[in-house]
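Supplementary Methods, section 5.1.

A reviewer requested that the exact input to the structure prediction be made available. We therefore reproduce it here, unchanged from the version used in the analyses.
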Amino acid sequence: MKHLIIISPEETVNEEINIVNALFDEGLQYFHLRKPHFSPAEQEMYLSRIKPQYLKNISIHQHHSADIKNQVVGFHFKESKRLKIKAIPIMRNLDTPYRRLSTSLHDADSIKTISAFWDYVFLSPIAESVSKPGYKNNKLVALKLVKSDNVPPVIALGGITTDNAEHILLRGFDGIAVLGSIWNDSGNAIKTFRKLQRICRN
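The structure derived from this sequence is encoded token-by-token as follows.
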């Protein structure tokens, strides 16, 4: 089965947390909480409304030092932050025997040099973004992924829909991460998720 990851919308949508909990109930593997405008207190409030058994399946993109009481296991680092921070490896030993770490890439050449230290990496944008119309990378749109054995799983991100997900996975990716296709039509989020889930299971 290929990985299926859902990323939060930057701006809160109606019934968002109820939808996140419902997605987990449907079998969601990982959820990435990316709210650049959130304060640590706002992030803590958001996480406090997630069912406790699902907190270990969440990765946070900001306020990494503020998650201890919420038992979040995953930390995600955007590319610019990864390149600046030299002590990321100690994150695995902060307060838990296992910490899931991920990061972002935006060009195919980076895959050749990314460390196997990471549990998985996002490569984007693979197609024209659903949440950011007009945002695309023509080189990545046509990319067929060929990886060496020491590369972490590469997750396709950007412009993924129920119409193109299968084709994108056939290009060699280890999974997909989805944002706009879920949240731009949040009333059908569960229906869309189920379709994507079936594609990832085939």
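The chain has a mean pLDDT of 87. These observations are discussed further in the main text.
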